[in-house]
Amino acid sequence: MADKNIIIKDSQIEDKKLKDLLEFPCDFTFKIVGVARSDLVNDVEKVMMKYAKVIDTPKIQPSSKGNYEAISLSMRAENIEQIETLYKVLAEIDGVRMVL
């Protein structure tokens, strides 16, 4: 049974962009998935530190077979351009398959 107090009309739903959802400055976490290699974490950290203030240590989660690893790392974002730049340059790191 639907809640009678909640009514959403199509005209009320907007296509929000990331920049519209964030208030700067803010903390922002990237998750980078790449082929497991000994220096992937170092490469990710170097790129992040070049463009932003890193605010924690990387959290690394290997895949079940150990072929890939997911690295989560947070930064202090000053503007949307900084985030967009990092999405691009992190994706260019050797072995990176996905940046979330």
Write a structural description:
The protein has helices at 18-21, 40-51, 80-91, and strands at residues 26-35, 53-54, 59-62, 68-77, 96-99. With 100 residues, the protein is of the alpha+beta class. Strands 1, 2, 3, 4 and 5 form a 5-stranded antiparallel sheet that branches. β3 (59-62) and β4 (68-77) form a beta hairpin. The longest helix has 12 residues, at 40-51. It is elongated, with a radius of gyration of 17 Å. The relative contact order is 0.26.
Task: Provide tags for this entry.
100 residues; alpha+beta; 30% strand; elongated
Q: Based on DSSP secondary structure assignment, what is the total number of beta strands? A: 5
Q: Judging from the principal axes of the Cα atoms, what is the shape?
A: elongated
How many helices in DSSP terms? 3
Name the helicity range: 25-40%
Mind describing the biggest β-sheet? 5 strands, antiparallel
N-to-C SSE string, H for helix and E for strand: HEHEEEHE
Roughly what is the average pLDDT, rounded to an integer? 87
Strand composition percent: 25-35%
Low-confidence stretches: 1-13
Q: Decide which structural class fits the backbone.
A: alpha+beta
Distance between the termini: 35 Å
Radius of gyration: 17 Å
